[in-house]
Design a protein that fits this description.
The structure is a single chain. With 285 residues, the protein is of the alpha+beta class. The protein contains eight helices and nine strands. α7 packs across α8.
Amino acid sequence: MKKGTKRKAAQATRKDETASTSTEPVTTIEEQHQQQNKEPTKIGRPTKRSRVLKPPESEPEFFDEQRELEDLWKQVFPVGTEWELLDLLSEYKWNFSNLEDAFEEGGVLHGKKVYLFSCTELGGKSGVILIPTVVAVVSPFPPSDKIGVNSVQREKEAILDMKRMKMDWVPYIPLGKRGSSVERLKSQIFILSCVQRRAGLKQLDEYRVKDFEYCLPYFYHPFKDDETEQSTIVNFMYPTEPKPVVCEFDWELDELEEFTDDLIKAEELSEDQKYAFKEFVKEKV
């Protein structure tokens, strides 16, 4: 074969190969995106949630039920106790449930009018434990309005008015009735109270402060003959409007009914105050 003929045959062969190659489909960029979208997406495993640990359930707390007279002994002023020692009373949880039980139904003080005062004494091996004692006096009226002050430094006992020592018998209000008025309660329990503030002691002289440390309620002994003659006259002032009634009543010579009527006739007392006035005089006598 001639050279020209071979060259033409080779060129023809290349054209056939090119034609056969160009017949394959051409994939565009847009089609590639479509194919990618058709591919199934792989579902990943869900992430594990962190386990929240519940705190251990705490055991329910139980509190002792509050008793009506739980703080009765604490409200009573510890008369005759040194001021700097009063804080020692709170170092121990003293139990006066026997006093509370005495006011319950069937108790020795139930339904009775009782006046309470407190005193203390030092105890323990080292003598630094302050032991409280509560004294109950059953009486239809206040057992005393006097305070006796006595010490080894004094020549004799001094008898002072409670008012001077800022002390008085006041009604005790049980814990569950603290919101009620005193008049409505008609309390049968009265306690010795002192309104002298410890901060105010700095303004008092030393002898005055010592009076508080050496005092106790003063009671007249009913079975002991009194050497001095007792007066039968009572001086009093009855609070009323427009002016108070100031007079004296002799319980041996005066008749209360006649005495009251004379005041009404003298227009010193109104008729509607007659009953209240008579009860007032009886209490003073």
